[in-house]
Design goal:
heterodimer, A: about 575 residues, alpha/beta, Rossmann fold, six-stranded mixed sheet, B: about 80 residues, alpha+beta, SH3 type barrels, six-stranded antiparallel sheet, 2 helices
C-alpha cells in the first residue's frame, strides 16, 4: 500500500515548489542549489487516504557528497520498498545532467515517476522534449509539469499508481553517461535562437571583470535598498501607528494604573519628563513592542525582500564564484558566502545552511565566523538606529571592523586547524525572473518565523530587565563585571547588563544602551562587542546541535577571546 | 592534440575530458555532474588569484575550484 512519496532530484530543480503544490505546505525555495537542508514533510490527500510526502535535499547522484545529501540517500534506502514511490523531479532545461540520477534511481529498483519540471522555461530556451519517447526509453511514467503555475500536478498524482520497479542492468558511471547520450539524441531537440539579453547578462556575470563590477553594483544597490525601504517603513508605517494610535491608548492605561504602582512599572515603565519614551521606558507594552515592531521589523521586512529577490534571480551562486579565492584563504570555499548572507538576516538559518558545506572543519569555521563576524538584521537595525543618528560614518565603521574581524579570524582558523579546505564545485543556475507568488510566500514565512522566535524572548528580556531595575539589582551585577567592562573596554559598568542581555536578544541589548548616555566611542565599542560576543540564545542552541559539544565549546572559547581582543584594541586605538 | 588542464584552457576553447583527479569521492562528484572522460567541455572563464574556473558542460555552467580544476585534464585540438 502506498504510504509515502519521496521527492528527489538534482539541486535547484524546483522540488520545494512541487512539494508545496502537492501538500499545500509552504516552504522556502530559491534559485540556487541547497535551499532545503532539512527534510520537509507534509501530507497529500487522495480520496480517503493521506499519503506522507517527503521533500529531500537535492542530490546529483545516489552516492552522497555532503551531509545534506547523505541524509536524503539514507532515508530513501532505509524505507520498506513496497510502501513508497519516488517522484524524480527533473529540470527539463537540463535534461541530460538530470537523467544521471533518474537512471540510478531506476537501476536501484525503486518505483519512480518522473516529473519533467520547468517545462515552460524549456520552451523559452528552445528545448523540445519528446515525452512519449522518453517514457518508453526509461520504462517509467513521465509527466510534464510546471510547478510554479501548477500545470501538470494533477496528472502527476493520477499516474502514481503506474510507478513500478523496472528491471535495468547496473551500469558503470561511464556507461550510464553513454546511455544518457543515446536517450538525449532520441528525445531532445534544440531550436537555435539568437542570444537574449538574459543570456548575455548570465555570461557577463561569470567573467572576472564584468562579474566583479556586477557584484559590486548589486551589493551596493541591495544595501541602499534595504536601508531605504526600512527607513520608509519606519517613517510611514510603524512610527505613525505607535505615536498616533498606540500612545494615546497607553496614556489612558497609565493614568488608570497610576504612575507609582508596580504594574505601571511593569507594563508602561518609567515616565521620562512625565512622558512615555518608547525607547527608554522599558515597559512590557512600551519598549518591548516598539523595539520589535518599529525599530527591527521594518528592516527585517526590507532585508528579506531584497535577499529573496537576489535568491530567486540566481545571483548568490555567482557571488560564490567571485568570492571563492578569498574564502579559500579562510579555509572555506565560495559557497560559504550563502550561509554568511543568510546570517545577515538571522544567524540561525545561516548556521543551518552550513550543512551544505562538505567537511566538518569547514562547517566549524563557517559557523564560528558567522556567530562572531556576521551581525543579524535585528542587531543591524538597532545599530542603524543608535549610531546612524550621529553619522553614517560610524555605521560603516562597525561593518568595517566586523569584516576585518571575520577576515583575520578566518585566516587564523585556517592556519591553526588541521586539514585542507575542500574545493568549490557548484552549478551556476540561469537567471530566472522571480515569481511574485513565491517571493511573497517566502517573505511571509521568514517574517512569521522571525516574529514567532523574537517576540517571546523580547518580552521576557524586557521583563527581566524591568524587574531587576525595580528592585535595584543591577548594582550587584555590574560590580562583578566592572573590571572587564570598565578596565578593558572603557565602558561604564552599567553596560555589563546590556552585554549580558545580548545573550537573549541583540536588539533588546542595544535598547538597554540607549538610556546610559554613552559617548560615541563607547557606543561604537558596545555595538561591535554585541556583534562579536556570544550570539543570542537561539543561535547557541543551533550551534550546539550542529557542531556537537566539543566543537561548540571550542567555538565559545574563540568567541570569548575575540570579544576581549576586539574590545580591548578598539578601546586602545580609537581616539576619545 | 595537446593535453592541458582546465585552468590552462583559454576562454571559449573547447576540449574533451581526458583524465579526472584521483580519489573516488571527488571523481564520483565530477562524474555525477556530467564531467566524465570523453565529454566535450567549453571553457567559460576563470577568476584570477587562484580563483575557480567556469566551464560549460552540455547545458549547464559549472564552477570548479582552482585546485580541482588544475587536476582535470582535457585534450584540445591546438
Amino acid at each position: 500500500m502506498l504510504k509515502k512519496i519521496f521527492l528527489i532530484g538534482n539541486p535547484n530543480v524546483g522540488k520545494s515548489v512541487v512539494f508545496s503544490r502537492l501538500t499545500g505546505v509552504r516552504v522556502i525555495s530559491s534559485n540556487y542549489a541547497g535551499t532545503t537542508v532539512d527534510i520537509m514533510k507534509g501530507f497529500l490527500k487522495s480520496g480517503e487516504e493521506e499519503i506522507e510526502v517527503i521533500d529531500l535535499p537535492g542530490t546529483y547522484s545516489i552516492e552522497p557528497s555532503s551531509k545534506a545529501e547523505e541524509v536524503a540517500v539514507s532515508l530513501l534506502k532505509g524505507s520498506p520498498r513496497d510502501e513508497f514511490i519516488v517522484i524524480n523531479i527533473v529540470d527539463s532545461t537540463n535534461l541530460e545532467r538530470n537523467l544521471f540520477l533518474t537512471l540510478q534511481l531506476i537501476e536501484e529498483g525503486l518505483p519512480v515517476v518522473v516529473s519533467l519540471n520547468m517545462c515552460d522555461d524549456a520552451k523559452h530556451r528552445g528545448v523540445n522534449i519528446d515525452i512519449e519517447k522518453l517514457e518508453k526509453l526509461l520504462g517509467v511514467p513521465v509527466v510534464a509539469t510546471c510547478a510554479i503555475t501548477g500545470f501538470g500536478i494533477k496528472m502527476l498524482i493520477d499516474r502514481f499508481k503506474e510507478a513500478k520497479p523496472v528491471a535495468r542492468n547496473k551500469l558503470t558511471h561511464r556507461e550510464l553517461w553513454q546511455e544518457i547520450g543515446n536517450i538525449i539524441e532520441q528525445v531532445q531537440q534544440l531550436t537555435h535562437r539568437h542570444h537574449t539579453l538574459r543570456e548575455l547578462l548570465e555570461d557577463a556575470s561569470v567573467r572576472p571583470f564584468s562579474g566583479m563590477l556586477m557584484a559590486i553594483a548589486v551589493t551596493f544597490i541591495s544595501f541602499q535598498a534595504v536601508r531605504f525601504i526600512g527607513e520608509w517603513l519606519i517613517d510611514n508605517v510603524s512610527n505613525p501607528v505607535f505615536f498616533k494610535f498606540y500612545e494615546p491608548l497607553l496614556w489612558k492605561l497609565s493614568r488608570y494604573l497610576g504612575e507609582e504602582s508596580f504594574i505601571h512599572h511593569l507594563l508602561i515603565g518609567d515616565l521620562l519628563d512625565g512622558k512615555i519614551d518608547f525607547q527608554q521606558s522599558l515597559g512590557l507594552l512600551t519598549t518591548a513592542p516598539y523595539i520589535e515592531f518599529a525599530m527591527v521589523l521594518p528592516y527585517i521586512v526590507s532585508f528579506y525582500l531584497i535577499l529573496s529577490l537576489l535568491e530567486d534571480i540566481g545571483i548568490l551562486p555567482r557571488l560564490a564564484m567571485l568570492m571563492d579565492n578569498i574564502l579559500h584563504r579562510l579555509g572555506l570555499h565560495g559557497f560559504a558566502i550563502i550561509p554568511v548572507l543568510l546570517g545577515l538576516g538571522c544567524n540561525v538559518p545561516g548556521i543551518l545552511a552550513t550543512r551544505n558545506l562538505e567537511s566538518r572543519r569547514e562547517r566549524f569555521i563557517a559557523a564560528t565566523l558567522i556567530s562572531i563576524g556576521v551581525p543579524c538584521a535585528a542587531l543591524q537595525a538597532m545599530i542603524f538606529g543608535l549610531l546612524g543618528k550621529f553619522s553614517g560614518f560610524y555605521v560603516t565603521g562597525v561593518y568595517l571592523v566586523l569584516f576585518l574581524v571575520w577576515l583575520v579570524l578566518g585566516v587564523l582558523l585556517n592556519r591553526v586547524l588541521k586539514g585542507v579546505s575542500p574545493e568549490l564545485l557548484v552549478e551556476i543556475p540561469p537567471y530566472r525572473i522571480p515569481s511574485f507568488a513565491i517571493l511573497w510566500h517566502k517573505l511571509f514565512l521568514r517574517i512569521k518565523g522571525f516574529l514567532i522566535e523574537a517576540i517571546p524572548v523580547v518580552m521576557l528580556g524586557v521583563l527581566i530587565v524591568n524587574i531587576l531595575l525595580y528592585f535595584r539589582l543591577f548594582e550587584q551585577f555590574s560590580l562583578i563585571f566592572a573590571p572587564v567592562v570598565k578596565g578593558i573596554f572603557g565602558l561604564p559598568k552599567e553596560s555589563a547588563i546590556a552585554l549580558i542581555m545580548g545573550f537573549f536578544r541583540k536588539d533588546v541589548a542595544v535598547g538597554m544602551l540607549m538610556p546610559l548616555g554613552l559617548s560615541i566611542k563607547q557606543l561604537f565599542i558596545a555595538c561591535v562587542l554585541l556583534a562579536v560576543s556570544f550570539p543570542c540564545v537561539a543561535t547557541f542552541v543551533i550551534m550546539f546541535r550542529e557542531l556537537g559539544w566539543k566543537d561548540f565549546l571550542k567555538s565559545c572559547a574563540i568567541m570569548l577571546m575575540a570579544m576581549l581582543a576586539v574590545g580591548a584594541s578598539l578601546n586602545f586605538v580609537l581616539p576619545h | 592534440m595537446k593535453k592541458i588542464n582546465l585552468v590552462q584552457m583559454k576562454e571559449k576553447q573547447k576540449g574533451r575530458i581526458a583524465e579526472l583527479p584521483e580519489g573516488s569521492a571527488l571523481r564520483n562528484k565530477l562524474m555525477s555532474l556530467g564531467i566524465y572522460p570523453g565529454r566535450e567541455v567549453t571553457k567559460v572563464s576563470h577568476i584570477g588569484l587562484r580563483g575557480p574556473a567556469a566551464i560549460k558542460v552540455g547545458r549547464s555552467v559549472l564552477v570548479i575550484g582552482h585546485g580541482m580544476a588544475s587536476k582535470v585534464i582535457v585534450e584540445t585540438q591546438c
